[in-house]
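User: Let's play a game. I give you a shape written as tokens, and you guess the letters that built it. Ready? Here's round one.
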């Protein structure tokens, strides 16, 4: 979830809130190699029944443009140098960014794509779109796999506050 959240940060979550678009949630993700799910942190992009469209990094939900201000820093860096300085620690990430035609692409690399979110499911994406493993690759998440909404970061102390 870079740049919004960093590895090893600690979050307080609530299981009582209604899930809304752009909330940050913790969900269970299952993979084919284990019966045990891993917990992931992603942003809600689509609610049940939504039609999600991306056209050159502009998000449209049900025909209305939705701003994503939390992506501004990485989108600016993508335009500047395709995130090469940001990803200098990882050659694989640098290669993915160099090959990307937009900051947000489909699982097959298309800058323009549309997804219909199935009823009872949520479309989740990470904020670091180029390298995020999310609904674009693993599909939508059923409500039963949403653990809760992240509300407050309490560690590290110098970053304490709402998310």
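Assistant: Ready! My guess for every position:
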């Amino acid at each position: 979830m870079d740049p919004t959240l960093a590895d090893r940060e600690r979050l307080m979550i609530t299981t009582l809130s209604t899930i809304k678009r752009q909330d940050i949630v913790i969900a269970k993700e299952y993979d084919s190699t284990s019966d045990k799910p891993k917990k992931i942190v992603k942003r809600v992009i689509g609610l049940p029944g939504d039609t999600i469209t991306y056209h050159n990094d502009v998000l449209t939900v049900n025909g209305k443009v939705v701003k994503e201000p939390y992506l501004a820093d990485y989108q600016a860096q993508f335009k500047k140098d395709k995130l090469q300085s940001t990803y200098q620690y990882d050659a694989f990430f640098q290669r993915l960014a160099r090959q990307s035609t937009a900051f947000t692409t489909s699982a097959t690399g298309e800058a323009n794509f549309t997804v219909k979110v199935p009823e009872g499911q949520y479309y989740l994406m990470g904020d670091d779109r180029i390298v995020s493993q999310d609904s674009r690759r693993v599909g939508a998440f059923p409500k039963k796999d949403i653990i809760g909404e992240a509300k407050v970061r309490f560690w590290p102390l110098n970053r304490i506050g709402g998310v």
